[in-house]
Amino acid sequence: MRLTEDERAMLAGAAGEPRRWAIEHQIAVGEFFDAADLVPVSQAHIMADTESLGESGVRFLETLAAAPEPERRVRIPTLTDPRGLDFAVYKRLGQTDAMAALEARTIAALKSFGVLMTDTCINYQTILPPTRGEHLAMGDTGVVIYSNSVFGARSNFEGGPSALAAALTGRTPRYGYHLDAHRRATRRFQLDVRPHDLSEWGALGGIVGRACGSYWEVPLIDGIENAPGSDALKHFGAAMASYGSTALFHMPGITPEPIEFAGSVPDTVRIGRAELDAFVTAYGATGDKVDVVVFAAPHLSLVEMAAVADALAGRPVHPDTTLLVATSPEIKHAADRMGLTRRIEETGAIVAAGICFYQSYAAEMAEANGWQRLVTNSAKLVNIIGGYGYRPTLLSLERCVDSAVTGRVV
Amino acid sequence: MPTVLKCHPGIGPSVTGIALVAKDNFSARYDLDRKTGVFSRPTHALAGQSYAGKVLVLDQAKGGVATAWMLHEMKSRGLVPLALVFNRVNPILAQVAAFGSVTIVDRFESDVTDLIQTGDELRIDPAAGVVEILNR
User: Fold this and answer.
1) CATH: 3.30.70.100, 3.30.499.10, 3.40.50.720, 1.10.10.60. Which one for A5-180?
2) Predicted pLDDT of residue B135
């Protein structure tokens, strides 16, 4: 790889051990993908929840964070993905003091790098939306696909260590979605159905992602007549990235980049009502007892928070069911201020800030609370949570709320 | 003479181990019971099987950014695969290897899940971009 003078100095350790580690890591990744050089990035976003980090990951962060301040400070605005635990509600969720202690250590380490503790996977809605052509190092698959597709920004999936490396060097290896050549469409889908709600947008994303099945496929989705809106595209992209490891999609008339195919125009795969219904029905469990209803993954926007409050309409949550709503700290503050948090919590539901269920010791919560049947409107969560021993069901927001109130899948 | 498979140069130290092969994909968060070291996702082709110390031969990486930290944590407890031999990995698995958690190679001349069988003894040389099947 071609390195600048500044980059060679970092590699030689002249800028301290954290930056030496960071650029060495980036060069190894870059060479694996035949990157020609490193590209400056304007934001980094770090996934560093304690469930994933474990004791070993926290110790790694603490060791780097022990470097002198000029050597450890991040070089670009650096945000965090959701945390493992919300100190305000963790005991109600069956999480332990040991988890809270690990979380506190992680937060202290990240703050000493100068990281901004945004604790959210909807930073593109709430913190600083990317702009077209902006190179980024985003550490959440949903954030990457939204930033690439809806804004036309440029990021690969950056795991926690790599996003931290980008924060410390201010750059990332130039491969994958930083390059024009990888951003052309390789698959083509035609929608013959208009999704009814966010759960169906997620299901559509899941269908496309499952059909693509690779980080390197770029689907083009035709047939969307009206702009779906930010929350719909959020659920659509997050589910596609989850089911398919997909990082970029194009929607003619909706997304900003010109439509080009990587080679010859691929065959069109049609998706209609039958495919959509079959996807949802595969998770169906009408009549089953509901243990937990979760609104998360991605974090709820303020508009979604209002929709949950409206759907509950003051009805109490069933005593044998837990209803959890997870959003970002910013949106939680806004919801507090506007009375939405009170309207949701007075029904017995829990509003958590800065956590996102599956990143929050989901297996331990299931064991502590005896949870199995999980109902959600997030197709992404439905895909993930089976590996944690849950039996998930995908429903609309309104039917999720009705299930929470009656204690049965409706 | 061992069978020699060529691939793109990978990341990590050379290792020798036993293959566990499936035509399926991989995510640490979605598919694994990281406490016990087995595939836990009921629909995974390797559900119930132990991955610790094995060379996993699979198709693609999927989903999750979290795999980068998770394999590091799994390695600290000795419950990590020895190596990942895939048709195509995503950036996260390359980053996992660069973080020192596991040896990784990908991009073979044909479908690696057809070339290698479960139980094969493999020697992986990432710097050279070579996987040898020692028993065949």
Assistant:
1) 3.30.499.10
2) 96
